[in-house]
Amino acid sequence: MHPLSKNENPFMPLPNVTESISIELDKINRYPESFPESLRNNLSLKLEIPSEMIMIGAGSAGIALTSLQALSKPNFKIAYSWRNFEAYPLISNIVGAHISTIPLRTDGTQDLEALINKSKQTDVIILCNPHNPTGEFIQSDDLYSFLTSIPNTTFIILDEAYIEYVTDFTPPDSIHWIEKFPNLIVIRSFSKAYGLAGMRIGYGIAHPDIVSKINSSQLPFSVNSLSNAAALASLKATEKIMHRVRYIASERQRISSYLHNQGWNVLHSQTNFLWIHEPKKTMLLEKLLKNENIVAKVYPGEGVRITLGSKDDNDAIVRALKIKF
After folding, report:
1. Which residue intervals define the domain Aminotransferase class I/classII large in the entry (predicted)?
2. How far is CA 142 from the centre of its chain?
């Protein structure tokens, strides 16, 4: 079986990560830090920003939810592109928000102009970059222009869960734009490039006043000691993590080029997955993939998202989709 539907990292945890977890297990009878200051301080050094700008939570989705809960008010309105990360409607409904969805363009890209127009009547815009499920990446100049067009009374949650996989372009320096855009909240994850999906830990970066407001709505001990230890250890293994990222990027190029040559419409991805933009062939794609025991994420009538995994996983994709159009 090739489980390629959840955008998981195919690599086992690094030895220093498992060692850190093992050490922490001996202290599991003790509470973790009330708030994970050690992780905030380490991220502060890595990102070169004050620790007061950093918040820690249960994955990027957890950070997004906590942010929305802190910002929520009567007649709360949220807008985002759709199709998108499926947690967005869940967390929006949890806070009782009125949701507006902006359809993707026919080429699968996000309609930034439509989002800008909608921002004048909404409280929060959620923007996923790189985008899930298409893998689309909004380059720095376009993203900066987008931010300048959003009213300063509207918050922007910029979801950068896949930012480490951006290798074909220069990633935006979004966290250092917060001084100019105090309504910007950047959320990131340890689940993808760092391979800690089972640990449920992520972080957000925002203006210190916003972080203080969001943190005040969090319960103490909300990040468990094992997750905290795993994240700290991962930050100390950046080069090994990036070596794994480069492998995924090379496989992304290999599989994408092959599928293009076979006639499949594959969008240019800057993530650890590929989006096959074939609205009329989703059922055919599902059947072909199942023939090779591949479980992908199928969006009927829209497209298919396939996670890039081990070489064995990716070779199975090649075998499954060898049919030429």
Report:
1. 4-321
2. 19
